[in-house]
Amino acid sequence: MNAAAPLHTISVGTAGPRIAFLHGLFGQGRNWSQIAKALAGPAGTGARSTLVDLPDHGRSPWSQEFSFEGYAAAVADTLRGIDDSTPWVVVGHSLGGKTAMLLALQHPELVSRLVVVDIAPKSYGSLERFSGYIDEMQRLPLGELTNRADAEARFEEPNAGVKAFLLQNLRRDGDSWRWQANLELFAADAAKGTGSVIAAWPDTTGLEPFPRKVLWVAGSESSYITDEDLTPMRALFPKVRQLTVRGATHWVHTDAPDVMVEALRRFAHVDR
């Protein structure tokens, strides 16, 4: 990844606290648009949100090799480039949650408050949960596609929501199609099995605990956070507070947007 190239971002709102949103694997910054618009309010003055496309996603540059340190550094450079005088409330989901946690630990001066959505500071063993999605994406015959409806018909994913989420990465350039996400990089990482870097948690030895408030959001129907995760989470983020959203899966902000908006309003001191 070209270190000089900033990550692609979308801005929502004109006043209020600065909030940065970091999406999960195969996501894009615009996945948080509904939340950001609600926080900004009808006048756009409730909050200034920046929706970040992480490296290897959306319209941001690709990496040669995946690392959370590289992701966190790219986010730090991008946020400083937008506003280096105001600390940010950083919200991260899943892969973006790990990136946000490392960002807060490595660049605490940049982060005023942290929101971690349905992920813990631990290794998840492998990318097994995503391997099937990656296989489906690789099987899609890009050279044969005639239009997006054709792609949707050929893409063998029974869950309509998951299918739409993954196919948002499909882009048309003239008469050809391509994956906007760095699919080969993710496939190579998934092929490492328990050696997956994306599924792991980076080494934070020697880093000071994050001294400010942290909101840790979990979906009640998700298995990504367990009771055993509280001890390592508190060791790194001693001012953490947990919020479990009833009925929500791993995609808490999609399943319960109103709850997420209200939680962020209170935590980030967003005016209505």
TrEMBL record:
Domain named AB hydrolase-1: residues: 18-256
InterPro entries xrefs: AB_hydrolase_1, AB_hydrolase_fold
Q: Which domain of life is it from?
A: Bacteria
Gene Ontology MF, one: hydrolase activity
Name the keywords, alphabetized: Hydrolase
- Protein name according to UniProt: Pimeloyl-ACP methyl ester carboxylesterase
Organism equals Pedococcus dokdonensis
